[in-house]
């Protein structure tokens, strides 16, 4: 690997240039700082796979060493030592210690993650750590669920008995109108810079470009029947989910608002084989005026994401969440795969920071390390000049997101 001394300008840019975090989630409040197991900072697993297995990964070993250094612990500090130290720190001090070194200038928040409303600070609360105001990314499935639940709960008709054949078409018409109005209102809101879909978790990324009215009505009836049984409304029926995505893509395209898609890396609630962004090719072609942002490096389908970016003008890739969820070697390999084919004006970075302030720290410092390692190697091998590498870093960390989300910022 090239030394920092050899490429001083590249090193300075990689480790200190201000950045736009194009996808993150709010932090827990001080009162709820222990509401979620801290091991979630290094893995997407749940249950025993999280608490017993994730601490034996290379990702955990690397995070342990970096957090031990942040907390002024010795080189032999263990994961439990790190947890004990963070528990001793006042929460405001922990947040300041973790966020200050990142030089994140602006954060775009998906505040529709489950648990955020109950446990977390508002997105605006985070402005104390950044030089530019935070903005929102609206999670459309949550919006759709809330609208549908409100309509159903307010209705005096029995949606489970099926005795009124007119109920479903009438409900669908009202739901569609309110969903469209809500998405349009968000698109018009200056605080909202984009949308987010978790179709990957619900029914997969093979979003249909069209369907019949009967298909949507049947999906809606299935959704309501399940709601009557389990008393929890969740969009899990493909035709209904796909309709919500298409409605969002339509409005977003007219308003030039990017739509982020969870792709690849996630917990066991998604089906891995349906999480490749390659499944989105149909709707990418059907909505050419809508900017698509493929989140989380699409890992392990990174090359699929780079391919789509190379052949469709409206597709961009985010190289996030792999920091700190996979090993350092893996992170560098993913970044190399992104750069194999993806135009460098279409690459953005994020922490996918959530719950814990240290997630922002690790997501930033590890990304900066990987950028330098990979680009210094490319300069050394003669694939590009140091000046070109510096420009790539500035674009990936700041300028691409600033342009794509129409933030209107200057690096500070």
TrEMBL record:
<dbReference type="InterPro" id="IPR006680">
    <property type="entry name" value="Amidohydro-rel"/>
</dbReference>
<dbReference type="InterPro" id="IPR032466">
    <property type="entry name" value="Metal_Hydrolase"/>
</dbReference>
<dbReference type="GO" id="GO:0016787">
    <property type="term" value="F:hydrolase activity"/>
</dbReference>
<dbReference type="Pfam" id="PF04909">
    <property type="entry name" value="Amidohydro_2"/>
</dbReference>
<feature type="domain" description="Amidohydrolase-related">
    <location>
        <begin position="235"/>
        <end position="383"/>
    </location>
</feature>
<protein>
    <recommendedName>
        <fullName>Amidohydrolase-related domain-containing protein</fullName>
    </recommendedName>
</protein>
